Amino acid sequence: MSGPRKGLLLAAIQIAxxxxxxxxxxxxxxxxxRVWVLCGAYDPELPIRGRYLSERLQLPAEGFxxxxxxxxxxxxxxxxxxxxxxxxxxxxGQLIAKxxxxxxxxxxxxRKNGDGTIxxxxxxxxxxxxxxxxELPQLKPGEALWVEVTVPTQGPPRPIRLAIKKDGxxxxxxxx
Length: 176
Known about the structure:
Blueprint lengths: L2 H29 L2 E8 L10 E11 L12 H7 L1 E9 L2 E5 L6 E8 L5 E5 L3 E4 L13 E8 L7 E9 L2 E4 L4
Parallel strand pairs: 2-4
Antiparallel strand pairs: 1-2, 1-8, 2-6, 2-7, 3-4, 3-5, 5-6, 8-9, 9-10
């Protein structure tokens, strides 16, 4: 086989791989459940920056035991003490992190609120790529940032779009 034919064959294989991955992601988006999740902005210290938002999902947690750090525990030690595996489940239109279960899962960091409830934050942030022309609004008091995600059968949730929630109303952002 000549050099140009080998090159064309390799290009055809690469195009087929990309198209199959894109098809799988589109299929998952159409067939897998979607849910809105509260998120917190997270900015990783990466040398390469782009037009993307990096968000950690904030999930209600069930069945976890929180390890209370001592007063002298430093932040990274608290992170290590309370990082656990969680199974993701959708119940009543809400994504929940559970200590026991089946289905997709991921590592989460547990935090105890002042009222004693435990909240789980996804250890791996979800990346949402946005247009160069997108105007990102500043959150005002009483507003929260939410992300709509697809929950696949395996792997972490995949982000679709962002919204701002104010007074119980979600308003999707136009980031085109």
